[in-house]
Amino acid sequence: MLVRRSPIGTVPRSRIPSRMMLAELEAWLSSSAAPPAIVQAGAAVLRRRASDVPQSLLGTPALAQLVEIMVETMRAAPGVGLAAPQIGVSLRLFVAEDDEERLQRVAPESLAVRRRTPLPLTVVVNPKIEVVAGDEEIFYEGCLSVRGYSALVGRAAAVKVRGVDPHGDAMSFRVEGWAARIVQHEVDHLDGTLYVDRMIARSLAGDAEMARLSGLPVSEVIRELVER
Ligand code: ZN
After folding, report:
1. Pair 10, 90: CB distance under 8 Å
2. Fewer CB near the terminus (10 Å): N or C of the chain?
3. Can you tell me the mean pLDDT for 65-80?
4. CA of 79 to the centre of ligand 1 (A)
């Protein structure tokens, strides 16, 4: 059965006292289906700028529970990243994980070309990213909120991430290659941007074609689909 929930954070942040934000989150948590449905493209919550997580939510059981739900939902999907708006919560946080076990199922040459190395479970609240290596890397990318498709997207080769953990402790780290792509994709979600807004036009591919396309060099895919 599907339980409908109203997305939280829909009122401009400036008009919500943070006490109300906690009450809203608690109400959302108590009415939430387990696991929550992943919101699909077309939903307004994926298109608005999510609200900063207020100081008063940091370190609360409610925020810890939200993070736990996000991690479970990402793993069950399965996916390598999930931003809060993707489960209907318009707050600025994301979870990401690209574990060893998953990578073992990917061809070594595919990992090497994508510079894909294990990313341990990462939770960032109120993230800010700074591009530290602007060289674009172009690869196919998909999204749990745009089921059934992938497209070529250029992403910065390395980014520095700053934010806080769910307890409010400051964190800062640098990621490269595939992990940098995941982080840029998730932070885009917090700004209401989907990868399809950044994709190389004409590169869109359905799942049935992806098994073939993901094995080809990107330059060949561009010749086949993009150039004319
Ligand atoms: Zn996504």
Report:
1. yes
2. N
3. 96
4. 9
Question: Which structure tokens are listed for 92?
Answer: 């600025």
pLDDT above 90 covers a percentage of the chain that reads: 82
Task: Please say whether the beta carbons of 61 and 73 come within 8 A.
Answer: no
Which of 24, 97, 186, 220 does the annotation list as catalytic?
Answer: 186
Cα 123 to ligand 1 centroid, rounded to whole Å: 15
Task: Give residue 111 CA to ligand 1 midpoint distance, Å.
Answer: 20
Residue spans per domain, the chain: 13-226
Token look-up 């749990």 returns: 144
Cα 127 to averaged position of ligand 1 atoms, centre (Å): 16
Q: How confident is the model at residue 35 (pLDDT cuts 50, 70, 90)?
A: confident
Residues with CB under 5 A from ligand 1 (ion): 143
From the centroid of its chain, how far is CA 103? Answer: 18
pLDDT digits (tens, 9 = 90+) for 129-181: 999 987 899 999 999 999 999 999 999 999 999 999 999 999 999 999 999 99
Give me ligand 1 centre to Cα 14, in Å.
27
The model's confidence at residue 17, banded by pLDDT at 50, 70 and 90, is low
The pLDDT assigned to 18 comes to 64
CA 90-175-188 angle, to 5 degrees, is: 25
**13-226, what's its fold?**
Peptide Deformylase (3.90.45)
Rounded to whole angstroms, what are the CA distances from 112 to 192, 197, 202?
A: 31, 27, 26
Coil, helix or strand at residue 100: helix
Check if 186 is active-site: yes
